[in-house]
Amino acid sequence: MKCEICHEADAAAVIHVKKDGEDRELYVCKACAAKSRHKKKNPNPKPNGEGAPSLEFGDGEEPPEFVKNLVEATLGFMKGVVESEQNSRTCPACKTTWEQAKESGHLGCPNCWKAFAKNIRANFLSGQYGPKHVGSMPPTVTGEASRAYLERELKAAVAREDFKRAAALKRLIDALGGKEGQ
Amino acid sequence: MSARRGPNSQFQATHVVTGGSMCLYRNDQDRRFGTDDQHVITELWELPSDIPDAYTRLEAAERRLAAEHVFAWHPEFGYLSPFPDHCGTGLHVWAEFHLEGLNLIGDLQPVRAGIEAMRMTFHGVDADGIHNAGHIFRIWNNATLGLPERKLVRRVMRTFEDLVTQELYARQMLIEDTPRIFEDSIMRALAILRSARLLSPWELFDLLSPIRLAANMGYIAGITGSEVISLMAAQAKKPDLPPPQSIADERRRDNRDAALADRINKRFARVEFTF
User: Fold this and answer.
1) Cross-chain residue pair A169–B68, CB shorter than 8 Å
2) What's B47's domain CATH number?
3) Fewer beta carbons under 10 A from the terminal one: N or C of chain B?
4) Do B33 and A107 touch (CB under 8 A)?
5) pTM above 0.80?
């Protein structure tokens, strides 16, 4: 009887293989039997691809263990990269890093909220009633702070030399920006 | 022993909630965050039903402040503060509750869990190794994002009102269904206050809690509820001594506790439980 793998030498051994989900017995020559044993002992792929485990698996079939490990390791690595990128994020206005802010529980300036928005959403907002502000808005946003009124107040503040109030009013007028005539 | 009504009205909300405050936190847009620069607008209230009116006053004060400042604001996060978990409306409503009745009938833990599930902080006073001393709790809303101010105010008011009702029910249950537990806690506290030879300020604070309950319900003669409250407040103001490092430290602590015990023994010698 010829070897069922190489079809050249005489069969001298029996090996058990799994093919299409079925256990099969193969009658093989000594050389092919040795190769098969070597494959079992050394599943790591060689540079020339010899002895590499098959990457093919059918629908509903579990992927091989090494594929699962590889996927997990890659995902873990990617997560680490994303986390370290997030932690090293820095506020361009006050130079506070996210790591510093997280450790102290204290942000550096209003701009930090914009710079760390993703991190804040992920780490701090789970205990809130909702994900977004739905309450009142400052008059500078709603346009309620009338430019004409503020300018009148500014003139009056300058006239009575109340420069602190004048500076505050000037800031408000600047914040209104292009909303001329409101 | 059957339960009798005391001479004073026993079930008053003012005996449970000793008032509270509400604060709006605002920060300037063009300044770095620092604790000194934060604007804090505060209003006080006496009963939970006063909370909406207090908010109206707070709103007016905020409008006046807004005429002079540009507040840090973000369309998604609302009013910005230095603390990443404080944003949105920036509105916190605080209250102080005396929950001795709930403690004595054993319902304090479920009530606490319920309050915490409503995103509120429930904070007792811990000192000198005594947890939740005096069963006085400070409660405030943790969450400030995702609800408009008026809705938040109504929700907090309802929660506080429910808590007051729960405590008043507990007090009623205590004298009607479990008078022995009520008597036991008062008699024990009185016995220690009359005869202890050493009393630390925080132990005294804890012992005065059932006395305050009985005084509020009119079952104590010889001391008024308001005197008990001021005695408790005086103890709360005393700083904790650090753990004794030497014999001299221990002696100093003992001397303080002995002087306090002597004063309290004298004050409570003629205080009677009249249940």
Assistant:
1) yes
2) 3.30.590.10
3) N
4) yes
5) no
